[in-house]
Amino acid sequence: MQPIDLRSDTVTQPTPAMRQAMFDAPVGDDVYGEDPTVNRLEQVAAQRMGKESALFLASGTQANQVAILSHTARGEEVIVEEESHIFYYEAAGIAALSACQARTVPGHRGAMDPNRVEAAIRADNIHYPRTALICVENTHNRAGGTVLPPANLEALAALAHRHGLPVHMDGARVFNAAIAQGSTAATVAAPVDSVMFCLSKGLAAPVGALLAGSREWVARARRYRKLLGGGMRQAGILAAAGLVALETMVDRLAEDHANARELARGLAEMPGLDLDLETVQTNMVLFEVVDSTWDAPALVAALGQVGVLCGAFGPRHIRLVTHNDVAAADVPEVLDRIEGVLSR
Ligand code: TLP
């Protein structure tokens, strides 16, 4: 039985065009600013994000952490949504690298209430840390790939800027948000001061993420990237795949979204599972295991035995992610296999 890997869009294989571009890429020492392929990727990325400048980094986590370092100083506070990747999955980087404290605010489908965010901004008082930064995540991973409503983002950015605070967007999947809204990444990222996006998720490149913002701020970020050991040399080998990803893999994300919707429709019919179809907005399907004979890790293990690879998101939740290496024809097959396991 052929395994179908729905654990994440990070498992995607680079396309033949990417491998060829990597083979052919002109390269140089990027720490000297001399890699033409990296320079081109950074230019294209800045333009796609509608920002002045961009920086190529090894991973989404490195890019988020460099962004936080570049927006803050030791002893300050960063407002993050309580289920955000930055807070949940980045090994306490805010504390360990920036020496800042995270202040969490709950979200609804990943979107924080602007009033709660405003209430979390510190007044000027020597007892308090200074609030330095507000982070948002779009699409929101732990909420199931939900898109932040543009009005919410605009309200958050407006209040942040009123308080003199920058906003950073973890846009690991910002192109999924753009495609879901029939918009562009530049429009999605317009309200924020800095945005990170990943090449190595739905866009299927093997490695890399970009951080975009003002010219001055990106120059600062370049120094922090070096500090974290992220100054790579002939990195054009990797950037070449990233350019192919931006040129050829953005529009096809719509297929992943359609496949996720089909998958979700089928799962919503199955007894023992609970799924809110309204959260299925991009390439993820997050559902709850309500059948008391299963918990999420046990069901994930049983599905693995029939070649449906997925991930437990807590004791009762399971996440499935569609991507370039999952075809529309795989969807009924996945549903059949899941139904087979549940009806045992
Ligand atoms: N997310 C991974 C896991 O770490 C959970 C996944 O499989 O979804 N921001 C967001 C919103 C992410 O989802 C991820 C990766 C990152 C940042 C980090 O990117 P990498 O893995 O490149 O460090």
Verbal overview:
The protein has two domains: 13-248, Type I PLP-dependent aspartate aminotransferase-like (Major domain) (Aspartate Aminotransferase, domain 2, 3-Layer(aba) Sandwich), CATH 3.40.640; 252-342, Aspartate Aminotransferase, domain 1 (Alpha-Beta Complex). The mean pLDDT is 98. The protein has 14 helices and 15 strands. The protein starts with a strand and ends with a helix. Helices cover 41% and strands 17% of the residues. Helix 3 crosses helix 10 and helix 12 packs parallel to helix 14. The protein has helices at 16-24, 36-49, 60-71, 85-88, 93-96, 114-120, 150-162, 174-180, 185-189, 215-227, 236-248, 253-268, 296-305, 330-342; strands at 4-5, 53-57, 77-81, 101-105, 107-108, 111-112, 131-137, 167-170, 194-198, 209-213, 273-274, 284-289, 308-309, 311-312, 317-321. The protein has a seven-stranded mixed sheet with strand order 2-10-9-8-7-3-4, with helices on both faces. A four-stranded antiparallel sheet has the order 11-12-15-14. The protein has a two-stranded parallel sheet with strand order 1-13. It is globular, with a radius of gyration of 20 Å. With 344 residues, it is an alpha/beta fold. The structure holds ligand TLP. Ligand TLP is lined by residues 8, 10, 59-61, 64, 85, 89, 137, 141, 170, 172, 198, 200, 209.
